[in-house]
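Please, structure for the following, as tokens.
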Amino acid sequence: MSVPEGPAVPVRHRRPRRALPPGLVMAAGTVVSRATGFVRSALLVAVLGSGLLADGYNVANTVPNILFVLLIGGALNTALVPHLVRAAKESADGGAAHVDRLVTVLVVALLVLTAVVVPGAPYVVRAYTSYDGAQLDRTVLLAYLCLPQVFFYGLFTVLGQLLNARQRFAPMAWAPVLNNLVVIGVFGAFVGHRSFDERDLTVLGAGTTAGVVAQGLVLLPCLRAAGVRLRPRWDWRRAGLGEPLRAAGWTLLLVLADQAGYWVVTRLSTSVGAQAAAAGLPGVGYTAYSSAYLLWIVPHGVVTVSLVTAAVPALSASADSPRAVRALLARTVRTIAVVTVPAACGFAVLAPQLCALAFGHGSTDPADVRAIAGMLTAFAPGLVLYSASYALTRAFYALGDSRTPFLLNLLPVAATALGAVLCHRLLPLRWAVTGMAGCYGGSFLLTVLGASLLLRRRLGPVRVLGDHARLLLAALPAATAAWWTARYGLAPAAATLAVGYLLLAHLLRVDELSALTTRLRRRP
């Protein structure tokens, strides 16, 4: 039976929704991650204070990440993406079989590594601290609960780098938010708690690990949405895995050297914390150092990591054109400095107000806040150097060279370790760890100088010095005005810094301000 046709109805075609720019999505995820990380860190200090209990928790929770980066993580972060980009270009299947084999190898390695390090919790804690008695027992208990994070940090890195190689940067930037929210919930339940028994510490340790588990597993559906269907493959022989594993070998040596320096700082700062507590001077040890570092690293995490992560695939794809690599690298370094230069000046002059806002709650007192603020001020100048060195060394990986970054890294590692030893021996307890913070940030000047000279031989001059000088000319007067305005509160001081810097940068014709906006808004 036929149905009479009615009048034609005009069809309204939906305009396809335009995707948000990947740089903006990634930067937004990093901002939210850092913001929730602040809440997490503030709750930690408010609940545990900044003395020995907090130091023990921070050591136990940091050691899994240290071990993961030390043994495999650094290799994954630096060597994997360039290799995957090349495999996708050179393989008929887009590198799918190669990815399956590589992921199988890495997951097996992570399982073996985790199975080895968890039973070794007491030895790991003794390696990083000089604790004994009840403090040692508490820290070892927390380490047993936190060390399984090694596997899930690895899973997060492997899956995240697979997504990055496919230009899907947002999931890896946003996944840590879930981790932070889980831990915030755990610590929120202990607000107002004054004493912690074994059961309480068990909840804190297990809850912290649950956050890392969530961070890793949430990337699985994102990978499926990107069209990646992983399956285990055991045909590893003659599968072309030699190149990434050789590259990973040099990166492993780099991370070993880097963590040697970090081990010196951790060992000495926890020792200072224990001595200071015995002398009635709490809050100047490892927790204060790591809290200041958390604030200091925010501009690097939000801007530097986002821009460099987005640039590495393009640098790898342009590796045959030195001129293209040089231009992209110079633009990336200059754009990063637009944020890191004023941020470093802001940290130097507004550290007391920033630390009071972030950490001046709960169990912390004004003396604790002053100690953290002093360390943030010491860290501040190194921010520009750290971010610049990060971008410059990633260029070597994009060019297929993992050996040079290892050799470059030996210089700041040696400077950091030597500086930490001298600060521990020569400075009063109150200032010893503060001096270590300054040595750490300043040591990256050696990396910047060395990387610039070596890249000049390969690519030609990477011109960034003049732009940094102009940015500093814009930031210093603005920071001075912000320091004077800080007596009226943090908000007026921050506004003075931002407005003054933007105005002076415009007068000095700093083009990278508009370049930063353009790169964040760039469409896929």
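Confidence is low (pLDDT under 50) at residues 1-17. The radius of gyration is 24 Å.
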